[in-house]
Amino acid sequence: MKASWKLWLILVSLFFLPGCWDRVELNDLSLITALAFDQAENNQIQVTIQFVIPQNQSGGGLLGGGGGSGGDKRTTVRSEKGADIAHALSKLQRIMPRKLFWGQCKVFIFSEEVAKRGIKEHFDFLLRHPQPRESAYMFVSKGKAADALELFPPIERSSSEVLRELDEFKVGPRITMEQLSIRFKGDSQAAVLPLVYILPRVKSAEPLQSIPFMLGTAIFKKDKMIGDMSEKITRGLQWVNNDIGEYTVTFPTEESEGLISLKPVKAHVKRIPRIEGDKWTMTVKVRTEGDMIQNGTSLNPMSPELLDKMDKAFKKDVHDRIRLALREAQQRWKADVFDFAKDFHRKYPKRWDQAKDRWDELFPKVEVFVEVQAEINRLGLINSPGGIPKTEVKEK
Amino acid sequence: MLEKGKISAFQMGIMMYPAIMATGFLALPTLTAQYAKNDLWLTGIFASLLGLVIVYTATKLHELYPMQTVIEYSEHIAGKLPGKVIGLVYLLFFLHISGFIAREYAEFVKDNFLFKTPMLLIISSMVLLAAFAVRGGLEMVARSAVIFTPLFTLPLFILLLLIPDLDVKNIFPVLNHGIIPVIKGTASPQAWISEFFLLAFFLPFLADPEKGRKWGFLSLCAIVSSMIYVNLISLFLFGPDTDDKMSPVFTAFRYIRVGDFFENLEAMLLAMWVVGNFVKIAVFYYAAVLSCAQWVKLTDFRPAVFPIGLMIVAFSLWDLPNSVIVSYVIKYVIPFYLPAVFSLIPLLLLVTAEWRKRKEPVEGGRVR
Description:
- The complex is a heterodimer of chains A (396) and B (368).
- Chain A contains 13 helices and 13 strands.
- Helix content of chain A is 33%, strand content 29%.
- Chain B is built from 13 helices and 2 strands.
- The radius of gyration of chain B is 20 Å and the shape is globular.
């Protein structure tokens, strides 16, 4: 009795232990690193996947660093057209000998054309399918999205890795899939995504040896891209959103020719919404400080009066940038890319409930006050301007 | 006495934690957010009020009828025949709800991890494992709970890695639409909390019954604070997107990313939640087996274990054709179904028992 019980147990466990139906061997998987979506004819969508070539991954580190040429390419692309993403992917699987694996896929690029037609149906796939990750970064490419994946960067394993690393530097607004989803669900119904361009190839590089990089942003209203903002305006946007990242601030002064550059720049931004009667106003208070790394003027920053004037020039520069971004968003695009709606909603929930349907009309009319407090904190290794005789330095 | 084993009040308190939160973590943040929006964290506080009542009811009934479970004392309180009917209600309820819990667990696993594995296999392997635990008696279930519960609570600490991504301001505006949405949102958490009446099945087997109430309340505290905690994390991370996720805690876990390498942690979460669900299913399974054995007055509960397991598997598939129906039942049926059995019947029993005690202080069918 006892023995037969144990035998039965062993027999049953044989069914469970091998790992059942969902067992997948590593060498049956193909690791996707990025997806690009392009518009195809007949309202179809063209999906391009970038996936790693496992055989070429081993020579990593310093030796392989300069590679990316000829036979040892580390990634390659394949693309298919379909009625929607799922359809295109199932067609893609037909020309892929291995099962697609999404765990390492951290970059999704929409082409400008797709973005302008609206991304909601594509975005639903990304959010609904259990495999794409919510922490992946989203981009919009100027031109064909697939082109960005077909490059072979001189450093980094793949062009998608380049985009991801650049994004992590915070050289532009960094938007993950989840953040975009929150913006689409949120009050402002507007969002921005970084725009991707392709760096022109240097003369000595092999064909296609280049990288994609980010410059400026695409503006979304609801799920449709309505336009793009230049790099300069995007910086103003980042000031308002308290997301200035790794920027260098360069500005002229009134007292002398030449420019002053500050880095790193720290900022603290406070946004105070206010509703008085029918008038909606927003005060953006920026407190910022920076360290001088270049002084091309003849002004000696050791003089308190001159430093004060430099501070004023710094302040004016930040102020102008913010104004520029505000004007662009409010007057030209009428899209609340700053998410002011959220601030109003939080402070005036009752008023917001009445006004939320009219936010599109209200937003351009919101009066924005910008208050900047800017200071230069440190001067680096030298005090008076370098490269000129003491006599030419302006002390006052 | 059917159950020979003895557990401590501490073990009981530990056991209740996964017995309530195993499926609570999966479904509660999204269910509450659908009504309460950004006030979802308040629902835990409201639900805890009911929890206090239920823990008090269970322990008070135990004081009146020590060494008896609800199946036995309902006969003394309500009379022979009505008592038997109440016992049958509990028996059928436990069969059904154990099956439903197994299904909830299986839906989660199949949705996110084992896409091709048949549902029946996911459920039956878990129920088989729970069957072995239940056959070992209450002591075995309690000891496995003590081992597994720390593992089960680990995800709560790992979620702290999300701190850089959290936006605390998502909590505003507090109570924008008044208290009504919060009360509506409390419907689901209070159903989960009402499961605390399971204490009625464990209190008779405590080695230190005087500490039963204390550990009941401590366990309630832990559960309510975990509920509020995961609700807040979901709210801070997802804001207006919370109610759209099938399981916000799971999605939050997927979002964790530290450096370039510490990521894709959801498989770890699965491992930790599976042990929690194992304890939950074992606890409900045990309650079903004990109800059955006491209702038909068996001398040993072990022969009932496997047949009841079979019925649990059947109930997990029966009349639940797809995950939409499962979600529908969780959202609209469970908030009334569970409290009816776990709070309404016990409260009526307690009131009747007190009334009887006052009316006929000597009699009252107390068996010591």
